[in-house]
Amino acid sequence: MLDNLPPAMFATLDTPSVLVDLDIAERNIHRFQSFANKAQITVRPHIKTHKLPDLAKAQIKAGAVGITCQKISEAEVMANAGLDDILITYNILSASKLDRLNRLASKIKLTVVADNLTVIEGLSAAFSNTTPLRVLVECDTGAGRCGVQTPEAACEIAQRINNTAGLMFGGLMTYPPTDREREVQQWLTDAQHACLNAGLQVDTISTGGTPGMWKADDVPVATEYRPGTYIYNDRSLVTRGTAKWDDCALTVLATVISTPTEKRAIIDAGSKVLTSDLLGMDGYGYVVDHPDLTIHALSEEHGIMLSKTPHQLSVGQRVRIIPNHACVVTNMMDRITLLRGKKIEGEEIVAARGCVT
Ligand SMILES: Cc1ncc(COP(=O)(O)O)c(C=O)c1O
Asked: What average pLDDT does the structure give for the chain?
């Protein structure tokens, strides 16, 4: 279990603050990289979880082939920091974004996705006078978000990309449903065969998400895996059994600011730090070393903790919380504090924080 706060050391930190233990993050990176190496699948981590160029570089150093970003603004930050192989897993529309995409593509190896003709036309207009842009077809293999709906439709979009000026068909991409590996394997295999029968080479088949990462080898048609949250882990992944509490690298440090009753205590972290994400669970995080406490409700700057028995907390006491969803917490603070076990390493600006365009 994570040690709860050697007090003298943590007294120097203001609260609420977000702490990232680099020892744990690095262990998480290496653990999945070795699994993927054995399964002969390349790793392209999604950096939306940490939004930090230094951690993206650590992922590359460990063996990742490149990174994944959700938004152009994230990719711009990463490219400026020297990351040079980026997949953006998002349909890109609008003149200003296409203009930025064009500039980005002139600096790095860039791949994007598309699942409809409007996006393809926009990309083509922006890239018809430059080096062709590599495009993967986004496939909805059951998660019910973006993506073409059938393997046949994937092949049709692939052919359109292949026949469109300025674009180059690079393969298939999916954000898969959890625990449905067999269906995902079938869907992608059917789409791959349809493309091959149409004379198209399918270089990349990209899938991924932390909940399914230990079953990445159950989708052998995939060439590439894109885990994001695995670097930090969080309460939702521990609850699912994907990770253990000891694997959680990101915690929120908070101070008890009031103990109105013997079974209620209030902390200085509310929805502006922990966020309102429940991800199907009760409460807004796991209070380390206080399994009796639940973070029952949040207002913007207050976290309301309840206990079934008297809580024994005092005003001024600090607690460390493993949030429900680490990725959204990353986007809440300008800076994080880096730790190595019980040692504070320093502060780091969250370079791609707020990059949602
Ligand atoms: C397209 C895409 N790929 C990969 C990921 C990584 O998922 P996870 O954070 O579960 O590892 C996400 C998560 O939102 C995603 O949207």
From this structure: 96
- Mutate which of 175, 178, 324 for ligand 1? The one with the most ligand atoms within 8 Å of its CB, which is 175
- The pLDDT of residue 11 is 78
Q: What is the CATH number of domain 23-231?
A: 3.20.20.10
pLDDT the model gives residue 4: 56
Q: Are 52 and 335 a contacting pair, CB within 8 Å?
A: no
Mean pLDDT value of segment 298-315: 97
Residue 230 alpha carbon, nearest atom of ligand 1: 11
The architecture in CATH of the region 7-20+235-349 reads Beta Barrel (2.40)
Q: How far is the CA of 166 from the centre of ligand 1 (A)?
A: 28
- Spell out where the chain has E strands: 17-21, 42-43, 67-69, 85-88, 109-114, 133-139, 167-174, 204-207, 224-225, 250-261, 264-267, 286-287, 293-298, 303-307, 318-322, 335-340, 343-349
Cα distance between residue 250 and residue 145, in whole Å: 27
Q: What is the pLDDT of residue 5?
A: 57
DSSP states of 205-257: EEE--GGGGGGGGG-TT--EE--SGGGT--HHHHHHTSS-GGG--EEEEEEEE
- Give ligand 1 pocket residues (Cβ under 6 A): 46, 49, 68, 89, 175, 208-211, 226-230, 327
Q: How far is the CA of 313 from the centre of ligand 1 (A)?
A: 37
Q: Does residue 40 have a pLDDT over 70?
A: yes
Q: Using CA positions, which residue lies closest to atom 5 of ligand 1?
A: 209
Q: Which residues contact 80 (CB under 8 A, 6 or more apart)?
A: none
The reply to whether 23-231 shares the fold of 7-20+235-349 is no
Residues 150-205 have pLDDT tens digits of 999 999 999 999 999 999 999 999 999 999 999 999 999 999 999 999 999 999 99
Enumerate the domain spans of the chain.
Answer: 7-20+235-349, 23-231
Identify the residue whose tokens are 């600096």: 107
pLDDT higher than 50, residue 1: no
